[in-house]
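Page 42, continued from yesterday. The earlier attempt failed because a stray header line got pasted into the input along with the sequence. Redoing it now with the clean sequence only.
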Amino acid sequence: MTREERHRELIATAEASMLRNYRQQPIVLSRGEGVELYDVRGERFLDMTAGIAVCALGHAHPALRRTLADQAGLLVHSSNLYYNEPNILAAAALVERCFADRAFFCNSGAEANEAALKLARRTMHVVRGEPHRNVVVATHGSFHGRTFATLATTGQEKYRAHFGPLLEPVALVPFGDLPAAERALADRTACAFLVEPIQAEGGIVVAPPGYLAGLREICDRTGTLLIFDEVQTGIGRTGKLFGHEWDGVTPDVMTLAKALGGGIPVAAMVCTEAAGQGLTYREGDAVPHASTFGGNALACAAVVCVLETIEKEGLLENCRMAGDYLGARLEELVARHPAVAGDARGRGLLRGLSLKVPVAPVIARCRERGVLFSVAGANVVRFAPPLIVKREHLDEAVGVLESVLRGGGGA
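This time it went through. Structure tokens are written below.
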């Protein structure tokens, strides 16, 4: 069987057996190395998506490969009926590097946000004795996950449509609008304000200066828990380990996933000691929250490896330098092609280029020329490459994108 025949056979098998909820591009990937991916036909692709901001260390990183192989030979899973060593070390590694005192592990960003929302509700009901405080305030344009609760707090109707009724009560306010946040929290019925430092799925929209600090002040004054959803901005993506560090402000609760395991499914909710009381076990009660696979030994070993490797290899500095370079290249592209390119936006290696032409054909044409991009929002080409990316990779990616736009957007 030739490689092309194998490719066609696998596509046919996928179409016959997999649920058709995704819109996969017509390639079958088989291996990766650094910032490159290869399909079953042997074709090479430059990866500007990193598994949607997941593969921070790139593909097949030697340190992560060794860690996973070694841990798989020791212990993969044991459940939270017992401690396991990697789980303890991963929790300590996170709290040592951020504002938080406590960490809870689960499997996905949506689950981490679910845990944060449950914590907020239970804090008001059980710890503070204020059961009337059950409103969750979130922002228009946000994305927090695809479970019922996280859909309810996602401020994009295209994701919410046809799944009602969703979790209530939820109030949505404009992103970046402090007076709107003030009004939503004024009556002190909210348990939490949930917000992303950068709205990634919403189109790479960076919080305006002073917005997060303003939310912190309002939440402190009204007794509301402030939750930062750092599922996509966390673990180095913006050039600091956590996106909120650019604003010099800390939340009560933060959610993490995507890059946390470097490609291994793992997520975390971290919080202050005070906020953590909301999900602390009380003798005689049921366990307030749990996850069968959360804290899995294999996943937690990956967490420690990713955090340590980012530091050892200076990837935060590389992210800042490469991100600044990419931002400048995208600004140049906007200036040269004002008819098709709208604006460049983002921070670190979470960047976007808004288009005045349909984005899907552009992504497809770039893939045909060997570069993989993803879409953010309605019309934004998203750059979220591995944190190990170099200038030559960015030059190649921007060059291909520009050639497609020069040709009229690939339609």
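Notes: The chain has two domains: 3-60+314-406, 75-312.
Reminder to self: strip header lines before submitting.
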